[in-house]
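Table S5 (text form). Sequence records supplied for joint modeling of the two-component complex.
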Amino acid sequence: MTSPVARKRKDVSPSPADLASWMPCPLVEWTQLSTSVAPDKSPSRSRLRTLRAKKQISDGVKVAHRGESGMVGASSYYSVLALWAERARSRGFDDDAATLTSAASVLEEEFGDPLREYLGRHSFDDLPEADFFWAMADRTLSVLIESKTWHDAVVAVASVTGVDDRFAHLEGASMEGQPRSVDLPRHLAESNRLAEGSCVYVVSRAMGAGAFVEVDAAMPSRQKWLEGFRPGCFEPADLEAEPVSVSSDEPQLRDYNAEPGAPLTRDLAEFAWRAVRESGLEPTPLRPAG
Amino acid sequence: MSGELTWRDAEKSDRPALEQFTCTGPAPKGPNHRPLPHPRPWEQEAQTGIRTRKPPGATRDIYRVGTTADGTIVAVAVAGTLDEPSYTNTYKLMVLAVATSVRGAGGEVADACMRDVLGQIGHRARADGLAAVLVLSQVDPHNEPSRSMCQRHEFTSAGVRGDYEVWIRHIAIEPLRA
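The corresponding structure-token record, covering 468 residues in total, follows.
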């Protein structure tokens, strides 16, 4: 149910209390969305079909998986924003739900082709290695941080510090940055394949007099990823390996900070100022508007 | 056309309109109606960026829109700087896009949009007490309209970094005349 990032990754750094260091996985499997829609029922494609017909969720991205001898199956994936739209709707935040659904559709449309191409030949677990992954993750986060539902529903971002007979113990921080300790029923941790060190967003919603708790994968932000992690190496043993150098010359490690729409970075500013110095470019005034 | 436009800061209330902003056509369809790669991916990236970027944005972002007489947003420009004292004299033009509905005027609206955002950067720089400011933009090498626009506005190519050309404009900030 949880994304591959949490499944495979043993997160040892950065600290979960450093909220800005984490971001959600931008894509979820259809089963997670279906379960969120109807937590007491088995995942159902027809349930999602109904919601699509009502325009309450985005269309998702259908991927044909290809093996050596041709197509071996198909799966549907959704922007995690579709999941958050559903959570917004269940809270009665209809405006937020509409915004999230719209943004999910935009992202699924833009990244649909590369997702189909990549996931057609690679496992979902390998998605963070796709060159478009961080661009999608960044855009997803930029929408979520504006979402009322996101701030309302996330109880904590926390990592699993231990598991006993009945509970998985998590330590982390609230969205306000306050320390949080959370105990999850062990079966919830197991069904999400969480292990000690896994980091998640703990999400809750009221259901009548009770509450429904979900866990979403959290992953280190791109910068943290580039600083301390090798793409594709999630296991603890690999984390101890020498990190590869990160250079814009390496296409598999393409730096999406280099995209035209990304915020200015210190590196880019330095690059531009170096060009000014080397070319002796003198400042000239703007011409009057007209 | 550009003479009829009004330029102003984008506001939170513009978000619904910006979520619908269209500056490119749909990707062509191939067999079985599957979309083919977009012929102008930079337009698609700009459109997605505008639809998901929420004004007013970061504190020091300059987020401008051009509107027609009826209030329709037909041009968008976003520029930002680093929130570090040593880089307040450096701005990146992150987005500059013109709606498909006002295309075909020889870049007139795009030029007006560029003039407006550069003017805003100039105002900001003057308020910050700067004598000069550097504006940079990253352009896809295949994006001829943007390359031409940079040249029209006295940008200079600073070379290629990653997949994009970096264009720079070093602007002198003149004090306001009394």
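Note: Residues 108-127 of chain B form the longest helix (20 residues).
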